[in-house]
Amino acid sequence: MTLLIVGGTEAVSPMGMNKAGNQRAGDGLSTVVAPITDWTERSGYPDSVIGGSGLIARQAGQVMVYWGLNVTVSTTVTSTFELMLNDDSLQSLPIDDDGVVTSQLNSPLSLTPGDELWMRVTVPPTWTSTYVLDGPDTYIYFEAA
């Protein structure tokens, strides 16, 4: 008699976070490159692990990633927002006007435990500022692919 053992894989737990508090990006004097900080668990994503400036993957697996921003700018200076995986930029969004911008990665992303998904902004020198607004319109979340 042959015994066959088939192992299953556990689906990646979905995770998500929303911005908690407004954040000023840019000092009006020099180019600023900074992480978007201060996050809270997104409603409906109770298994989220937030550390540092982003979501920390607990499991390995393929995920679809979604992200969005609610920003206000006081002039038409283009700020660049990037979705980051550890130290690598996955996608960038140039924004030069007030409003909500949403995006997603076009293909599944492979995560390993400890990977961090986070956002950063680059604001050029200007006499004005860019503000990243808090709430559910500034977010990162992922679900199993």
What does this structure look like?
This protein is mostly beta strands and 145 residues long. 0% of the residues lie in helices and 54% in strands. The protein contains no helices and 14 strands. Strands 1, 2, 4, 7, 10, 11, 13 and 14 form an eight-stranded antiparallel β-sheet that branches. Strands 3, 5, 6, 8, 9 and 12 form a six-stranded antiparallel β-sheet that branches. A hairpin with a 2-residue loop joins strand 5 (50-51) and strand 6 (54-56). It is elongated, with a radius of gyration of 17 Å. The chain starts with 14 loop residues before the first strand and ends with a strand.
Backbone structural class: mainly beta
Give the end-to-end Cα distance, rounded to a whole number of Å: 37 Å
Major sheet: 8 strands, antiparallel
Oligomer: single chain
Key structural traits:
145 residues, elongated, eight-stranded antiparallel beta sheet, six-stranded antiparallel beta sheet, 14 strands, disordered N terminus, 0% helix, mainly beta
Summary, kept brief:
The protein is mainly β and 145 residues long. It has strands spanning 15-19, 23-25, 32-35, 39-41, 50-51, 54-56, 61-73, 79-85, 88-95, 99-104, 109-111, 116-123, 130-132, 135-144.
Write the layout of secondary structure elements.
Elements: E1 15-19, E2 23-25, E3 32-35, E4 39-41, E5 50-51, E6 54-56, E7 61-73, E8 79-85, E9 88-95, E10 99-104, E11 109-111, E12 116-123, E13 130-132, E14 135-144
Antiparallel strand pairs: 1-4, 1-14, 2-13, 3-12, 5-6, 6-12, 7-10, 7-11, 7-13, 7-14, 8-9, 8-12
